[in-house]
């Protein structure tokens, strides 16, 4: 299946909610977006991106994991105009949902990163490493025993995890011989 063909069907943030969200969904995402405050170093990294990157996000407006992560991508796109983020509703596109299963299950959010001309570069989802570490700690009873780790530190880690993935994609695209020839750099 050519996932990039779905990028044209996918919707920007506001349109995604207008079509697939309820009155309760978008406010949860917007709260998360308001909490994303990239550090100066993260902002510099985002502003350094050169290659246009199309990010197709399989999501559900109703999904808590989407509400706690996808707005991070929106904030990044505001700071890095080279990032073009679009959302595809998981349930409306069962072929994409099947293609993007993780460990044999339907998961969201899953991001697929493409070059400007539609070549798939990477996939990432459904939770970041920081999120999984926190879940494992909660499961095993080891979470925050000292009181040192806070929800803010957890969220900052998730933001950094997403930035690391996008920076990796940018490095792949920036160093691509094919794209370097295309852009003369």
Largest sheet: 4 strands, mixed
Number of E strands = 4
Strand portion: 5-15%
What would the average pLDDT be, to the nearest integer? 93
Structural class: alpha+beta
CATH superfamily: Glutaredoxin
Looking at CATH, which topology would you report?
Glutaredoxin
- Cα(first) to Cα(last) distance is 32 Å
Which stretches are poorly predicted, pLDDT < 50 over at least 5 residues? 143-149
Order of helices and strands: HHHEHEHEEHHH
Instruction: List the domain count as a whole number.
Output: 1
Using the CA coordinates, give the radius of gyration.
Answer: 17 Å
What is the CATH architecture assignment? 3-Layer(aba) Sandwich
Percent helix range: 40-55%
The count of helical stretches stands at 8
Please tell me what the overall shape is.
globular
Q: Strand sequence of the main sheet, in spatial order?
A: 2-1-3-4
CATH class category name: Alpha Beta
């Amino acid at each position: 299946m050519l996932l990039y063909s779905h990028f044209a069907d996918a919707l920007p943030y506001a349109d995604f909610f207008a079509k697939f969200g309820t009155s309760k969904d978008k406010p949860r995402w917007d709260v998360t977006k308001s909490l994303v405050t990239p550090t100066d170093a993260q902002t510099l990294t985002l502003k350094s991106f050169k290659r246009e990157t199309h990010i197709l996000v399989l999501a559900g407006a109703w999904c808590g994991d989407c509400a706690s992560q996808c707005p991070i991508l929106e904030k990044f796109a505001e700071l890095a105009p080279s990032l073009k983020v679009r959302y595809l509703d998981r349930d409306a596109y069962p072929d994409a949902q099947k293609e993007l299963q993780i460990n044999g299950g339907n998961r969201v959010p899953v991001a697929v990163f493409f070059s400007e001309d539609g070549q798939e570069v990477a996939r990432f989802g459904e939770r970041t490493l920081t999120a999984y570490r926190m879940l494992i700690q909660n499961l095993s009873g080891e979470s925050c025993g000292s009181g040192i780790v806070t929800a803010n530190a957890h969220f900052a880690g998730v933001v950094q995890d997403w930035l690391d993935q996008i920076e990796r994609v940018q490095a792949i695209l920036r160093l691509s011989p094919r794209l370097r020839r295309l852009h003369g750099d």
